[in-house]
Amino acid sequence: MAGACRTLHILHTNDLHSHFRNMPHISTCLHRHRAEWEKRGEHVLTVDIGDHVDRMNVMTEATWGHSNVKVLNHSGYQYVTIGNNEGITFPKDKLDELYEQADFTVIVNNLIEPATGMQPHWAVPYAIHQWPDLRVAILGATIAFSPFYQMLGWEVSDPVPHIRNQVTALRSQADLIVVLSHLGYQQDVKLAQEVPGLDVILGAHTHHLLERGETVEGTLIAQVGRFGEYVGHVQLTLTMEDNRVLDAVAEVFPVKDYPPDEELQALLLQEKQAAETLLARPVTQLKTDLQIGWTEETPFGSMLAASIRRWTRAEVGLANGGLQLTPLQRGTVTYGDLLHCLPHPINPCAVTLTGAQLLQVLQRSIQPEAVHRELRGFGFRGKLIGWLGVDGLIVHYGDDSAGRRITGVQVNGQPLDLHRDYRVGTIDMFMFSRIYPELLEGRDLRFFLPEMLREVLAETIRDEQLIQESFQPRWLRV
After folding, report:
1. Over 60: is that where the pLDDT of 460 sits?
2. Helix, strand, coil percentages, rounded to 5, for the chain
């Protein structure tokens, strides 16, 4: 059987999120298996399916992802697509520069440069990898968060029509079609059901770990969790005469089973030291400590809410205390300090609520189950939601036989009017979840990009009056 078949191996990763500690092990895995299989005369591809970058890491933040590209280069990746962390947490000019030194090909079929109507200069809509006896068409697509891409100066579209058209056009030019899909598991299943002719979908975004893959309508779907804990391996066995697929299997390799690549370890140490130097630049001199407290009102929480309110030009500011992961001490505050405090890829936004809706948000926020609620995803890198920091409000609350309740609210010195509209500045995380469903019922939602919360704070923390005003309590227990 072996003599009558040829073999294609695909090694794949997804959603590393700048967990660089695993990359030396991944590099060893990729290089070792490539050498082993190519020595046997078998074909090998190495690909990454996006969200390799994450700006919570000092190296990614300080170098705008160029450290990630160096790691991908060293590890021998051949093709990658982008995820939302590349696409919408980088300003357009920084994304345009990200892959300047890439030794691999970036594939994304549904991201358009509006000025040209074409893919950006650093990407192609597809690639055909050719050996003398095998041709593999590789497609790439990223999840279409249209409002965010548009605000950053891109156009992004539903990738499914693009993929369907590409399959039609490329099937005669390739023996196999593989999709690098940063769309999520559910969309991958739908894609396999709706687009015939796909041999393999390598997935990402939803962090599913499919240890043996999953076959849907004859298409093998594979995805390997998050943070580089595993390398995925897809093996396709093909007929010699016409490259028809006889067998398609998936497995995962735990990266802890591979020794670290010492050369890559040295490169990462060098990159980290340089990044820390870059982020040691001072932002301001604080005259007072700003402590954190996830389950109680703090001046720092109020100050962040005030910063968002000012940035969005709103009447009210709201920000949960769990956003702040480390305190800021009096004295020099650096950009690195702000990154450690607010590592989240979260942006400000503004929405119009009625007074009744605003009251419901406040009432919900003081319940113990809301304060202590744990949260994962939506860009949040903390643990608990925490106490809701506010600005522009004075809230009176207390406990009675029915539990904790609000007894009165003032908005900028005036009693809350349940029927009046209020412009509320808050964070985009609340708009992607149902933590406060009343916020989702608001009107005239506007996101503020590209600045993340720490970049907003870098501006407002220089305002001593804003800081001092934040020491005035806004939540008054009666």
Report:
1. yes
2. 35, 30, 35
